[in-house]
Amino acid sequence: MLSPKQLESLATLVDEKALRTDQESCLNYGRDWTRVHQPNPAAVVLPKSVEEVQAIVRWACAEQVALVPSGGRSGLSAGAVAANGELVLALDRLNEISDFDATDRTVRCGAGVVTAQLQEFAQAEGLFYPVDFASSGSSQIGGNIATNAGGIKVIRYGMTRDWVAGLKVVTGTGELLDLNRGLIKNNAGYDLRHLMIGSEGTLGIIVEATMRLEAEPAERAVMVLGTPDMASIMEVLRAFRDRVRLEAFEFFSEEALAKVVEHQDLTRPFATASHYYALLEFEKPDDVAEASAMECFEHCVDAGWVEDGVISQSLAQASALWRLREDISETISRWTPYKNDISTTVSRVPSLLTEVEGLVSDNYPDFEIIWFGHIGDGNVHLNILKPDAMPMEEFQTRCGSVSQGVFESVARHGGSISAEHGVGLLKKPYLGYSRSDSEINLMAQLKRVFDPAGIMNPGKILDA
Amino acid sequence: MLSPKQLESLATLVDEKALRTDQESCLNYGRDWTRVHQPNPAAVVLPKSVEEVQAIVRWACAEQVALVPSGGRSGLSAGAVAANGELVLALDRLNEISDFDATDRTVRCGAGVVTAQLQEFAQAEGLFYPVDFASSGSSQIGGNIATNAGGIKVIRYGMTRDWVAGLKVVTGTGELLDLNRGLIKNNAGYDLRHLMIGSEGTLGIIVEATMRLEAEPAERAVMVLGTPDMASIMEVLRAFRDRVRLEAFEFFSEEALAKVVEHQDLTRPFATASHYYALLEFEKPDDVAEASAMECFEHCVDAGWVEDGVISQSLAQASALWRLREDISETISRWTPYKNDISTTVSRVPSLLTEVEGLVSDNYPDFEIIWFGHIGDGNVHLNILKPDAMPMEEFQTRCGSVSQGVFESVARHGGSISAEHGVGLLKKPYLGYSRSDSEINLMAQLKRVFDPAGIMNPGKILDA
């Protein structure tokens, strides 16, 4: 915790509203969307400029005070949790959008710019910021970059990484790095920008980014298709990918659909119940594209990969179909699910799912599993629902041992224990299933290069 | 140089054909496409497996022998030159293509696979490897990744970086890192893959890569358009980019065109001579796309941005138009040009070009300048032709002082002193124009993490 003298010296670096020690601020700024750790920051500081961030970091470096950078705090791995008396450095006030350039299609964003704010800005310029996910209304660009956020359109547009043309970062010594400056081509030495992306605040604090924007896609249509098994979903993916421009290719299980329909007052997409459903969105610039999609649908039905299906005829219908997928997370939250965010290559997903399903049903037959995810990217979310009768502690313990088995299977499939949620505190014990000892050792050494005092989000990803 | 005892112990690690000390091998494997440094390697070793690469690196680490990794040696910055008695480790024999997966659209390539070999493999599978440049017939995938090679289709497909789904690298201690394993989504810790890409063999030796392939584009058409000035080219880029799917957007100057037409027995694209020409290629899936391009052309003529133009009506015509751009480099090679490979953001290119042209014509009126490059990416190649009467040494010295001025202008434009050629030995003195002292210092520290013995391509990018 901070001494009164430390608080006093910190206060001289910022304006009077910027330093907060009240309980509510500490609770609010000390946690993310995970609710596993008890928030316990020493204080919260809200700098209003890059220079103030640098001053705070230099101060923290001299005082050996641990910093936790904080964005929209919608993370799911406790990467932004301050549970050990750290000083939370929140980027909320660096929220300016500036320097839009129509030729380069880039725009400068303070780290605290909210994702939806950038999406709306792009739209007003007739352009498009395509990285999108459930927390777009609260997540911030700096946090998105620090966690390399993914979401529902990765199959077409990639991860946040792919939209960062320039990055300003304050390292653990308070130095400001101005990386890549919006260039498309720049082979002048190591690309530190990419090293910073996804480093979860452990190498430096992202203070500003130059983000790329894209032309708006044409009109889109949404299809939901019922399939008998995962292998069929893979065939459907291959068939559609070759004939239409996919914007999204998601999946969910019958169990997921049943829960959503029951609790969100939605109707099933069609009468037939299938084991799995694919939701796909594609660009429909003209009638040819739609005809092509319908032809492909018929081909999939003939081949036995699709049992039934529906296509949106309006924006309202498209939104309604998307809700079947997007409302799953909220729907199942009442069962306080144990969430995993695993990936492998797309081709190995069916095998991974079969293995994990077998593992859970053999060893934990009393657990209900809800599968959904970004199947077009090889990324699935495994949600285990807590049986109502089971005490939370027992559930967490048993899920912990499920995780071991799941991650062993992920490792056998060459996969990732965290496809898009990052490592933070929650996935740290399992990092060895996706990264070798050599890699973890190298990462720790890299951290010391950028953060010799060990003050940048210590204990996240790697042991402090 | 290596002692007889060292050569003897090295020989035990590989088969008998693998170690070469003859003059021809040393000359051939000791240089790249630059001809500035005198090649002088101690020996050349050609391992046939990843295990042999590891054994050689461990041996070099113990013996303190500097290694220069070697691919197709078509580099233009002397990144693969061995001028100081190094051991050249050539990847030629790691040239297997394997594990193609049609669902993932990925394929495993040994570092020594030649670019054209991968392009042909993709084509045979009905797919496409889109990174393309003049040296595709000799450059190797490992070298492409080590230098993050760009080329003529970056505007649509990005750099080599964007096609690397997995990377195996042997670090300076002989450890093998298996990075990302072909995953689309993987946020489990720092992305060391991206750090390795473009590090020019100074952090590790790339031994294998999992490369992404893409659906083949539809039929394409090529246009060449004459424009009065650079500002007009930018307007043309914006106009076309919004209406067609650009595969390439290149430019060259009238001086470049005149040289190519004169020396390659080609005809001018049309009678009108313009200051600059844009060459653009776009996908033409149907008549709508072509009509759209023609409409855009007329709009550009009406606006005064285009003075004349031509569109290909056949593959043969498309190839002939491409030669106007692609043959420039070879054509001007007889004037032993001093080459720069600079970039800025696309929007700042006209200003950078004006500044650099003014600088050269004011201070060096006797020099002839040939401009061409990848204008859609903000990357231009400045070629200064040696006046026939000027001795080589005087020309090099004077060009060196031109470079200072050019790079000062690049720095003022926030640009890069090496857009796609890398740093190697040739650009090392100028790195400070694109990277801050902090960044260069951090890079040196990163090198020590991966290469504590300082044996990995020492002296390239950074001082050894």
Structure description:
The structure is a homodimer of 464-residue chains. Chain A is 35% helix and 21% strand. Chain A is α+β, with helices and mostly antiparallel strands. Chain A folds into four domains: 89 residues, 2-Layer Sandwich (Uridine Diphospho-n-acetylenolpyruvylglucosamine Reductase, domain 2); 119 residues, Uridine Diphospho-n-acetylenolpyruvylglucosamine Reductase, domain 3; 110 residues, Alpha-Beta Plaits (2-Layer Sandwich), CATH 3.30.70.2190; 91 residues, 2-Layer Sandwich (Alpha-Beta Plaits). In chain A, strands 15-12-14-13-17-18-16 form a seven-stranded antiparallel beta sheet, sandwiched between helices. In chain A, strands 5-6-10-8-9 form a five-stranded antiparallel beta sheet. A four-stranded mixed beta sheet of chain A has the order 1-2-4-3, sandwiched between helices. In chain A, helix 8 runs antiparallel to helix 10 and helix 13 packs antiparallel against helix 14. The longest helix of chain A has 21 residues. The model of chain A has no long low-confidence stretch (mean pLDDT 95).
